[in-house]
Design a protein that fits this description.
By secondary structure, this protein is of the alpha/beta class. Helices cover 39% and strands 21% of the residues. The chain has a 4-stranded antiparallel sheet with strand order 1-2-4-3, covered by helices on one side. The protein is globular.
Length: 156
């Protein structure tokens, strides 16, 4: 499917296809507004030929995923379980995301009753995150401060 998508959408300037291993992303952040509907119609018509896949939307992206019950929240639960962090008292999850596809992970952290679900957005919006940062620069500043704080406590 990825080759078909790449071949078909190359007529739309700014559109890109990314193989994310578990899904295919068609990015349209750099596509002219007048061409977005055409691109979406192309992608929809291609995916219709693959009944075991579905399209989900994100921030200027169409994600083509297998029809399975899996999202970022379930991926987070899987990782926490796999690494033995589900019941660890010395572990505090931190999840930073900027897309509606991150909402499932925010929900998992809130359900855990501990941790920091953080949305990155320059405008207020409805979210399951409890905290927010404005942009990637603020995320970097936050992470640097967190690292300095950890180092000041003598934690390796």
């Amino acid at each position: 499917m990825i080759q078909v998508l790449e071949e078909k959408i190359k007529t739309i300037k700014g559109a890109t296809v990314e193989d994310n291993k578990f899904c295919i992303s068609v990015h349209f952040r750099r596509v002219d507004e007048d061409d977005i509907n055409t691109l979406q119609e192309m992608v929809n018509s291609i995916v219709e030929a693959y009944p075991n896949f579905r399209i989900s939307g994100g921030k200027k992206v169409m994600e083509i995923r297998p029809c399975i019950d899996w999202d970022k929240g379930r991926a987070l639960e899987y990782l926490l379980d796999t690494f033995g962090f589900n019941n660890a008292s010395d572990f505090l999850p931190l999840y930073i995301g900027d897309d509606k596809t991150d909402e499932d992970a925010f929900k998992v952290i809130r359900h855990m009753g501990r941790g920091y679900p953080i949305i990155v957005s320059s405008v207020p919006r409805e979210t399951k995150a409890l905290y927010s940062l404005r942009d990637p620069d603020e995320v970097m500043s936050f992470l640097r401060r967190l690292a300095r704080w950890k180092k000041s406590l003598g934690i390796p």
